[in-house]
Write a structure and sequence with these properties.
Length: 360
């Protein structure tokens, strides 16, 4: 049975108290719909850019923004573009899943990994764990940095990790600690040949969102990791380079300290952003906007620059076929997200329903 080796030092305890205080402060800030939509878009961009950059993605932040929100295609960088689209789709899916209050399970992990590797496809077949041994090597020297557990042990180790998470939640272990320990142990198990880091970081964020630390969806931890990769990988790489030679029992208190500092810094940054952008006395409509799915939130950003959209606009930003976009727009009219602005069949246009009209 998985039993992480760590202590809650006075430093970690102080960090946890600061995180709790920041969470309450940020959740109580009244944010206008426009500010909230902008901050959420920024957080998604930050997470996608930095998490893929950690793995060697070559796109600049501007290029990532063009790919995600403007439907641009980048010649010669198809692989990087695919990574961006896959991560963003996985992030959107997991964010919506957190709202359903479901607990983490293996099906979710396998579906998430498939989305990450799927290049933006919404329909994917969950990926099985690796069926052979993989070795983590230093790219410069070729030296073995870490030898993960054998493939035959992966499934049972993941099951034990999930069981521990559920028990830890039930017994009141602080959620940031649970998220930190999951991140470490998932990276240690290394259940896939590729995509382990992105999967670990996304599920870490899911756990925070799922159990009360979503902060209206406007923060990202990935910039903290990417800011100093030496510290990130150094904190993860404790103990033996072989899973079976002490790595599984290593004291991970230093990693938890590193992680908690990151959460605190990220929350401080979000607080500063929110305070700067919020309008005094404005009505907080974050609950209303949280009802929107990922595609609706993406389309919402178009309305910052124009009052109406067409199905062609929707098709472009969502990268879907025109026929699909027309059907989707009609469904959104029925759902109360959009309303018809022009009845012309050739140039039918749509505006936001009043409840979501956050750009007046």
């Amino acid at each position: 049975m998985f039993k992480p080796n760590y202590i809650i030092s006075s430093f970690i305890a102080t960090c946890l108290m600061k995180i709790e205080a920041l969470t309450k402060e940020i959740e109580s800030l009244p944010l206008t719909p426009m500010v909230l939509a902008t901050l959420r878009e920024t957080a998604a961009l930050q997470s996608t850019y930095y998490s893929t950059k950690i793995e060697g993605n070559r796109l600049t932040k501007k290029e990532v923004e063009e790919v995600l929100f403007k439907g641009e295609r980048l010649r010669g960088k198809e692989r990087d573009e695919k990574e961006i689209l896959g991560y963003y789709e996985a992030l959107s899916w997991l964010e919506n899943l957190a709202l359903t209050k479901k607990h983490l399970d293996e099906k979710m992990i396998k579906k998430l990994h498939a989305l990450i590797m799927g290049g933006g496809r919404k329909t994917v077949t969950p990926t099985a764990y690796r069926d052979g041994q993989n070795v983590i090597k230093d790219g410069a020297t070729g030296r073995i940095v870490y030898l993960p557990p054998e493939a035959a042990d992966v499934s049972s180790l993941i099951k034990e990790l999930i069981q521990w998470i559920n028990h830890a939640v039930e017994t009141g272990v602080p959620i940031p600690l649970i998220a930190a320990i999951f991140h470490y142990q998932f990276a240690t198990i290394h259940p896939y040949y590729d995509g382990n880091g992105r999967t670990a970081r996304l599920i870490t964020t899911f756990l925070l969102h799922r159990y009360g630390y979503d902060l209206k969806g406007i923060y990202s931890l990935d910039a903290y990791y990417a800011d100093n990769l030496t510290d990130y990988y150094g904190s993860l790489s404790v103990g033996s380079h072989n899973y079976y030679m002490g790595r599984a029992d290593e004291d991970i208190t230093p990693w938890i300290s590193y992680f908690c500092i990151g959460v605190e810094k990220s929350f401080e940054h979000v607080k500063a952003q929110a305070l700067k952008a919020s309008k005094k006395g404005s009505k907080d409509q974050s609950r209303t906007l949280r009802k929107l799915d990922a595609r609706q939130r993406t389309v919402l950003t178009i309305f910052k620059d124009q009052e109406v959209v067409t199905s062609r606009d929707i098709a472009t930003i969502l990268r879907i076929k025109p026929r699909t976009a027309r059907a989707l727009a009609q469904q959104w009219v029925e759902d109360g997200f959009l309303k018809v602005a022009s009845l012309s069949k050739k140039t039918r246009s749509y505006s936001l329903a009043q409840v979501y009209n956050c750009f007046d």
